[in-house]
Write a structure and sequence with these properties.
single chain, alpha/beta, Aspartate Aminotransferase, domain 1, 15 helices
Length: about 400
């Protein structure tokens, strides 16, 4: 009889876990959650120290906006704290449908479907739409949720080099006929901050009869008219079959959505296990998301300030001698390479009052460790200058820059 204290080969579970944790530590890959005290502001209290937050996806500063707080409080008073069931059982409330109508209108799509997270949405959609006999064409730097959803689908997966349209064209041209073809890409790549070549992808998709799915998580609220995302940024709203976006980054809330045709929504409601078998998002979360969409359309200064801040910080880091790769957005990688040196730089910065999280394998490829610096519209110029001063001092101390 197998007990909880053992696994295959008579290796005790505790021994296995300790061995793995020790190996992670020795390789400089050990991770631990950091405790943030209070609200998600441009400066937060981290481990008792007031620190400039340079690792948040709260790009527009909406996570603490009074209108979002008020909307959540009012929703609790009217609807309670939880949805109490999945959408197909008894958890479908008027707020859920109101938000989906709002998102579809915002994105210029026929329909929208709300999911509980971006990860859930990508895994659910991909594992539902394609299967054996189909082919998924995926950028090598796509988010982990796209990778996992593609694997779970059991479709053939072809990985093309990052933004390499010649390679994608060659893969499409040699793909067997008979099954569905789906090109899937991040809109803004989460670890590099660069933008997908969507016009070229659309051209290839039309030529080879492929559908397109875009993960718009880091473009939603940031790029395009009123923050409508990457398709709006390129003027290709009618050319994308499936768009996934999150409510948890620039919108400052929680959850995700998928937009497309009415048929797509109907199909997912009936077939997508990630939607069917989970309790619906609580009313307070839905209400705050509705308030966030209103702010996107009425406070364009947030996007303008965010882009100006990103340009200032990116240029400052490059002038110091740091490699920021091909960043074009509010996500600014500071490439270091070695995992241990990446951790050391993050620690030095934290000691100087700046929190920029180190990103190491398997999140990024081996030898590509970096700090992932993200700016917010609500950062001040003083915050950004203090950040550059800290990068200058820490980089010289570690001999990373001259």
């Amino acid at each position: 009889m197998t007990t909880m204290s053992s696994v295959a080969g008579d290796v005790r579970l505790t021994d296995f876990l300790q061995t793995e944790l020790t190996q992670l530590t020795n390789e400089g890959l050990y991770r631990a959650c950091r405790l943030i005290e209070g609200e998600q502001l441009p400066r937060v209290r981290l481990a008792g120290q007031l620190t400039i937050m340079l690792s948040s996806n709260n790009y527009l500063g909406l996570a603490t906006h009074p209108k979002l707080k008020d909307a959540a409080k009012q929703a609790i008073d009217v609807y309670g704290c939880g949805a109490a069931a999945s959408r197909l059982i008894a958890g479908n409330m008027e707020l859920h449908e109101k938000l989906e109508e709002r998102i579809a209108r915002f994105k210029g799509a026929e329909a929208a479907l709300v999911f509980n997270s971006g990860y859930t949405a990508n895994v659910g959609v991909l594992s539902t739409l394609v299967g054996p006999g189909d082919v998924v064409f995926s950028d090598e730097l796509n988010h982990a949720s796209i990778i996992d959803g593609s694997r779970l689908s059991k479709a053939e997966i072809k990985i093309y080099p990052h933004k390499d349209m010649n390679s994608l064209e060659a893969m499409l041209s040699t793909s067997p006929t008979g099954g569905r073809k789906l090109i899937v890409t991040d809109g803004v790549f989460s670890m590099d901050g660069d933008i997908a070549p969507l016009p070229d992808i659309v051209t290839l998709a039309r030529r080879f009869g492929a559908a397109i799915m875009v993960d718009d998580a880091h473009a939603t609220g940031v790029l395009g008219k009123d923050g409508r995302g990457i398709a709006s940024f390129f003027g290709l709203e009618d050319a994308i079959d499936i768009q996934m976006g999150t409510l948890s980054k620039a919108l400052g809330c929680f959850g995700a959505y998928v937009v497309g045709s009415k048929q797509l929504k109907e199909f997912l409601v009936n077939k997508c296990r990630a939607f069917i078998y989970t309790t619906a998002l609580p009313p307070s979360v839905i209400a705050s998301a509705l308030a966030a969409f209103d702010l996107l359309e009425n406070e364009s200064w947030r996007r303008e300030t965010l882009h100006a801040h990103a340009d200032f910080l990116r240029e400052g880091l490059r002038n110091l001698g740091y490699d920021c790769s091909g960043s074009e957005t509010q996500i600014i990688p500071v490439l270091i390479g070695d995992s241990a040196r990446t951790v050391s730089l993050s620690q030095r910065l934290l000691a100087k009052g700046v929190f920029a999280c180190g990103v190491r394998p398997p999140t990024v490829p081996e030898g590509k460790s970096r700090l992932r610096a993200t700016v917010m519209a609500t950062h001040s110029q003083e915050d950004l200058q203090q950040t550059l001063d800290a990068f200058a001092a820490a980089g010289r101390e570690l001999k990373l820059i001259g």
